[in-house]
């Protein structure tokens, strides 16, 4: 036996012995103490990924609301089914003829359900406009006498999931699901004081757009952004609470394809290629025929999209990934049919153990067991084509992303997805100690206090993976994002000029 292998086995055996000898009764008693609080239910399942041994299990066969932990299943299914290098392809085509420098006909773009088009999480939100401009100029086209058409074949009109709480539907994190999305399906509003009134800078995917406004002062912010059918411009109306100048607001788009068509049309106009007619969104079952395809707009690779989804807990991305996996006839259902079927058939899960109602976790009615989520984590770990990309999609606890403020013991490295909504808090992912890897799923439902859930989780990790008392203060590694084993893809928000002080 080689010296390297001997050392590796010694380390593995030492850690296994450590965990087996760990005060599991104390750990379980601590969890049950939290679990016994009025209105609180908690589950935990920790499993050795190399041996399959269960280290700690509590309520692992009971159904819990997962919140954003369902994004693990969504991104994992997408990477498994489409591959890490998959990219959304949007065809760009023409119909008509060129006369001098005028195209007598239409410009057509085919929907692809790409969630990253003009996204706040990537650089270059206007890339599509520039690419279309370059393709048109290469054909000698400087004017279009027809209109821009968005071909939505295979995709239903935008919709909100019937399982989402009504109270969430006016917020940027619960935007419509659509086959053609833009800028995470919300516009950027910057309010500032003009002296005699309220001024607004309105941008959509980095492009300032002209608009009409009808504002009044009120007790609350009640804004509505719509497309004016006659003026072919945006209309911003409603009330703004007194003193709300100098702030940043995210305004959801009620009809993302219609806004996207307007945005692209105005963007081309700004580049000196006007369209004579107003853009139009076309729904149908079959793509348009007889077109001259002049290029394709390609999205970021699937592993980057998964990284954004989990690292940023981006609901719009998660819904798009689940949505596009569905067959066309299932897309209008609002259900993650393909994702749910994939995991049920692959791992032998049932509706009782795994039945998400959406791809993002916004629904309070979807449910899963910690056993089901653990099996999903183990499957992704065991798949050599997926493991690295999926692991890289999870932020490192105590260092970055939505788990940056989570204090984990210095003896371990944890890559975790967090999940939270009213009455739900949880963490799931992978823990590394020395050369050993473990899956961890922890979810609390009910009358919870988020800080109590967080504290309970970190102390459970201390009891499981260290030789320190669970009552001991935590010692956190001094580390930076650059120290992560898997480097983060560059994900940035484009800079935007604004008046007044901003708040996000």
CATH homology-level superfamily of the largest domain: DD-peptidase/beta-lactamase superfamily
Kindly report the average pLDDT value.
Answer: 87
- The third-level CATH topology of the largest domain is Beta-lactamase
Structural class: alpha+beta
Q: Helical amount among residues, as a percent range? A: 25-40%
SS summary, helix count: 12
In angstroms, what is the radius of gyration?
25 Å
Using the alpha-carbon principal axes, give the shape. globular
Largest sheet: 6 strands, mixed
Instruction: Give the quaternary arrangement of the chains.
Output: single chain
Identify the CATH architecture of the largest domain.
Answer: 3-Layer(aba) Sandwich
Number of strands: 20
Per CATH, the class of the largest domain reads Alpha Beta
Number of domains: 2
Would you identify the regions where 5 or more consecutive residues have pLDDT less than 50? 1-23, 473-504
Structure report:
The chain is built from twelve helices and 20 strands. By secondary structure, it is α+β, with helices and mostly antiparallel strands. It folds into two domains: 9-85 and 302-483, Beta-lactamase (3-Layer(aba) Sandwich); 89-298, D-Ala-D-Ala carboxypeptidase C, peptidase S13 (D-tyrosyl-trna(Tyr) Deacylase, Chain: A). Strands 3, 4, 5, 6, 14 and 15 form a six-stranded mixed sheet that branches. A five-stranded antiparallel sheet has the order 2-1-20-19-18, sandwiched between helices. The radius of gyration is 25 Å and the shape is globular. Mean pLDDT is 87; it is low at 1-23 and 473-504.
């Amino acid at each position: 036996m080689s010296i390297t292998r001997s050392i590796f086995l010694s380390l593995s055996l030492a850690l296994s012995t450590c965990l087996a000898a760990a005060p599991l009764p104390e750990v379980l008693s601590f969890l049950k103490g939290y679990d016994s609080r009025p209105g609180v239910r908690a589950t935990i399942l920790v499993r050795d990924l190399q041996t399959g041994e269960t280290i700690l299990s509590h309520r692992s066969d009971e159904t819990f609301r997962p919140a954003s932990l369902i994004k693990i299943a969504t991104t994992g299914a997408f990477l498994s089914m489409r591959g890490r290098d998959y990219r959304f392809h949007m065809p760009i085509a023409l119909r008509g003829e060129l006369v001098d420098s005028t195209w007598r006909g239409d410009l057509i773009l085919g929907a692809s359900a790409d969630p990253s088009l003009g996204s706040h999480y990537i650089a270059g939100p206007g890339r599509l406009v520039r690419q279309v401009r370059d393709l048109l100029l290469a054909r000698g086209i400087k004017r279009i006498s027809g209109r821009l058409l968005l071909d939505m074949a295979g995709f239903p009109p935008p919709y909100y999931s019937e399982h989402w709480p009504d109270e969430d539907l006016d917020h940027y994190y619960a935007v419509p699901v659509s086959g053609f999305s833009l800028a995470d399906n919300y516009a950027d509003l910057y309010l500032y004081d003009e002296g005699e009134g309220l001024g607004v800078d309105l941008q959509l995917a980095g492009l300032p757009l002209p608009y009409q406004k009808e504002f009044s002062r009120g007790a609350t912010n009640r804004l509505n952004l719509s497309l004016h059918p006659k003026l072919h411009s945006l209309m911003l109306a409603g009330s703004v609470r007194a003193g709300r100048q100098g702030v940043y607001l995210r305004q959801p788009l009620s009809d993302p394809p219609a806004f996207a068509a307007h945005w692209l049309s105005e963007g081309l106009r700004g580049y000196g290629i006007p369209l004579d007619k107003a853009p139009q969104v076309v729904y149908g079952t079959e793509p348009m025929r007889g077109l001259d395809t002049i290029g394709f707009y390609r999205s970021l690779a699937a592993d980057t999209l998964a990284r954004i989804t989990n690292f940023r807990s981006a609901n719009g991305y998660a819904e798009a990934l689940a949505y596009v996996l569905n067959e066309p006839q299932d897309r209008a259902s609002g259900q993650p049919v393909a994702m749910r079927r994939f995991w049920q058939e692959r791992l032998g899960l049932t509706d009782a153990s795994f039945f998400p109602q959406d791809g993002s976790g916004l629904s309070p009615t979807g449910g899963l067991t910690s056993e089901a989520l653990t099996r999903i984590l183990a499957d992704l770990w065991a798949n050599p084509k997926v493991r690295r990309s999926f692991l890289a999609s999870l932020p490192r606890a105590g260092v970055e992303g939505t788990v940056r403020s989570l204090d984990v013991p210095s003896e371990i490295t944890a890559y975790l997805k967090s999940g939270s909504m009213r009455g739900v808090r949880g963490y799931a992912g992978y823990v590394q100690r020395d050369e050993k890897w473990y899956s961890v799923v922890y979810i609390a439902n009910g009358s919870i206090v988020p800080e109590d859930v967080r504290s309970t989780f970190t102390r459970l990790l201390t009891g499981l993976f260290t030789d320190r008392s669970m009552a001991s203060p935590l010692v956190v590694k001094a580390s930076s994002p650059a120290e992560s084993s898997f480097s983060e893809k560059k994900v940035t928000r484009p800079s935007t000029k604004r008046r007044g002080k901003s708040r996000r």
